[in-house]
Amino acid sequence: MNRFLSLRFTICNLFFLVACFSANSQENWSVSLQTYQGSILPHSENIAHLITNKPTGYLFSVNHHVNGSKEWHHTYRFPDVGFSFHTQNNHNQTLGDLYGLYAHYNFYFLNRRLQFRVGQGVSYATNPYNKETNFRNVAYGSKFMPSTYFMLGYDQPRIWHNIGINAGLLFVHHSNATIKAPNTSTNTLGLNVGLIYHFSDEDQSGKANSFVDNPQQIRYNFLFRTGVNESHIIGMGQKPFYHITAIVEKPLNNYGAAQVGAEVFLSNSLKELIPFLATSFPEEGMDKNTDWKRVGVFVGYEWYLNKLTAEGNIGYYVHDEYKKNGSLYQRLGLRYYVTENIFGIMSLKTHFAKAEAFEVGVGYKL
Prior knowledge:
2 domains, Porin, 16 strands, eight-stranded antiparallel β-barrel, 3 helices
């Protein structure tokens, strides 16, 4: 445990030094330290035995308030971009503790007193599942996992000199997206409070431009996503998957575009799982000749954020003989545009609270 405390201290100091260096070269930088206490939400009976105490943690953040030099700064009313480091003590020896590194955005409303933050990153679990030494921890199947957090709170800068306060609600999701089984995951909801230090007496912002809708013509997207995942049967091993997607999108305004699409899912984990269930678990009623290929259609939305965009969709399987996951699926993801037409993809495909795949890939937009 001492080495993790040392790691946390080292990273926090590194963030602080980076922030101080940046503050000397330009305005609009701040750092914050918040503490929180919450509860792990009982979203599955499989983790009921792991919810024994209320987790506590810290969130250290470095923020940069954008200055209006780019169009999207005005579109989103001068948000903050930054990095954050998170610790969570679950107060449960089986679960262990969590440490995460994130990139985040802060968006402001109600005369900049209401702050909404979304962060995406990677977390480290100190005591994940091990079939011999920690078989009860079905929440985290791997040491490293994708993690997302949301924070909504009241923000009051510079109450005393350059020190302000922030308090509100924090939601943190830890899941390895079934990259490795088991993966029941945890969702933590907590109350947070903390202090903010601004390196300048006031943030420098250009005058916001008037919002002008700039709808474009219909565009077409072709995407290829891949990765590895494991079925819910522990020990079957990680297998590659391939998801091929075609999308028609109609930009609505400067904020984003509506989407409709179709896709094919080719999962080798499912290909091996079907005959295994048919042979080993006849009570499942699975035919060994069940088609493992699936086809879905979906509607969605792409939210523009400079070269980085976010997307979400909800889909329906028009062909799925496996049927164990239900008819609906969902996806949340990020795109980064290398050029106007070529982009990289990182996304999470789920069946409501049950993650199926963490996808990475490339896309082309006509």
